[in-house]
Amino acid sequence: MTAFPDVKQLLAEDRADGSIYSNSDLYDMEMDRIFMHNWIWVAHRSELPEPGQFITTFVGSHPVIVSRDRQGVVHVMLNRCRHRGATVCEQKHGKAASFVCPYHGWAYGLDGALRGVPHQDGYTGQLDKSKLPLVNLRVEEYNGLIFATFDKSIMSLEDWLGRAKPWIDLFMKQGAYWPIKTMGEHKFTFPGNWKIQLENTTDAYHFPIVHKPYLDSVDKETEDTFSFLDGEGYVEDLGHGHSVMVMIPDLVDLEEDLDRPIPMRFEKLAEDLSKDHTPQEVRRIVRAVGGTGFNLNLFPNLACSMAFFRVLRPLSVNETEIRHIAIGMDGGPAIANQARLRLHEHFQGPMGFGTPDDAEAWDRVQRGSLAGRDIPILLNRGIGHEAKRENGNLYSDVSAETGMRAAYRQWFADMTEENEA
Ligand code: FES
Ligand SMILES: [Fe+2]
Q1: Looking at ligand 1, which residue's alpha carbon is closest to its atom 3?
Q2: Is the four-CA dihedral 116, 122, 124, 127 of positive or negative sign?
Q3: Collapsed DSSP state (helix, strand, coil) of residue 166
Q4: In the chain, at which end, N or C, are there fewer CB atoms within 10 A of the end residue's CB?
Q5: Burial environment of residue 385 by CB neighbours within 10 A (0 to 12, 13 to 18, 19 or more)
Q6: How many Å apart are CA 117 and CA 362, to the nearest integer?
Q7: Tell me, what DSSP letter sits at residue 409?
Q8: pLDDT < 70 stretches in the chain
Q9: What pLDDT score was predicted for residue 421?
Q10: Helix (H, G, I), strand (E, B) or coil at 352
Q11: In 271-333, which ranges are E strands?
């Protein structure tokens, strides 16, 4: 029998043991206790708007198909044939009437029901198709975000998201007058543990250091906007491991302050938009194009990060896949969506001025943290001036590690199976 690591020895309020990034027994525990017993983000509604559309993705290490059936109901099903286990779909996305296993031809409906078995008479009555559907996970949706879980007994998605919900609603205001849609993605892996990335989305402290090349690549006004470390921003613990890091408070609610001057970098876009839109509409669209001023971290695998989705998938204890999914306005002006894509590429793209620098830092954390024994990873920044809001949320200044502490509290609760944070 495997002896599970003693999690209580590995984490304190203000520090974690360096082995949390490299202990493979701990990783196996995480895959079970965190990724099979929480709500895991799988898709945005716009990725499968019509009946018959599907995508393939993962819940933790488990391949799944997310499909929309003829009635419009979304299903998340294990991508595993009930005969001998082959994946039944290898396409990233598409439209289908059914999923036919390529090995012996068993055919499944969009809801996973087993509809056809070639040469079924060979089973001489010993195969009940109704008992062999693709295994369906529990699925719930909030404001376009689709989540799934293996666990039939955990709380509803709305309860799980809890105090993060108003922030999701604010994030979706980037659609301006239209719903949000996904517009493609950059995908890469880095040789490090998934928690290094989980921490990073709520780490403002690194921004002026790691992202100096980005700050050097933009105009002075944009550089000032992104020099937020001494500003009025804050990090807030939203419960259940979720947190929000507000870097640019002026960009929290994109429907407010429409009278502000248009930033220099959007002047040309505003001029072009004004040919087809009223001045009020132009201001609203331009504000949406610039994105929000906050990163919303949803434990354990999704960040609604300023103007895109950042999705993490652990591949092994020391390898993680990251997807940066661009988002835009579904039905909005093409020039506005193009502007959003260019901004996305500028920071998040493979040749961007932001993400490659982040990835280098994560790689170095993984390698450096292997040095020595019993040397802690510090998580104590901002703990001395952390305070509580009326609703109970802990908060601290923008560069505090409050969001990391929030994530690790839920991590600890899941790993020790104590009550949720
Ligand atoms: S493994 Fe799928 S039909 Fe045999
Ligand atoms: Fe970064």
Answers
A1: 104
A2: negative
A3: helix
A4: N
A5: exposed
A6: 48
A7: H
A8: 1-3, 418-421
A9: 46
A10: coil
A11: 294-298, 302-305, 308-316, 319-329
pLDDT in tens, 36-92: 999 999 999 999 999 999 999 999 999 999 999 999 999 999 999 999 999 999 999
pLDDT score for 418: 67
Q: How far is the CA of 303 from the centre of ligand 2 (A)?
A: 13
- For the domain covering 162-416, report its CATH number: 3.90.380.10
Return the axis-axis angle of helices 279-290 and 334-348, rounded to nearest 10°. Answer: 20
- Reduced to 3 states (helix: H, G, I; strand: E, B; else coil), residue 220 is helix
SS3 332: coil
CB neighbours (10 Å) of residue 63? 16
Ligand 2 centroid–CA 358 distance in Å is: 5
pLDDT score, position 193: 98
Q: How far is CA 231 from CA 80, 224, 225, 228, 247, in A?
A: 50, 11, 10, 5, 8
Atom of ligand 1 nearest to the CA of 101: 2
Query: Where do the domains of the chain lie?
Result: 40-142, 162-416
Region of residue 287 (left: phi > 0; alpha: psi -120 to 50; beta: else): alpha
Structure confidence at residue 3 (pLDDT): 67
- Residues framing ligand 1 (Cβ under 6 A): 81, 83-84, 86, 101, 103-106
Tracing tokens 């932001």 back to the chain, one arrives at 354
Nearby residues of 203 by Cβ (< 8 Å), 6 or more positions away: 401, 403, 404
Q: How far apart are the CA of 354 and the centre of ligand 2, in A?
A: 6
Radius of gyration of the chain (CA): 23
Q: Which ligand is nearest to the CA of 359?
A: 2
User: CATH code for 40-142?
Assistant: 2.102.10.10
User: Structure tokens of 178?
Assistant: 């239209």
Which atom, in ligand 1's list, is nearest to the CA of 86?
1
Q: Contact at 8 Å (CB) between 202 and 297?
A: yes
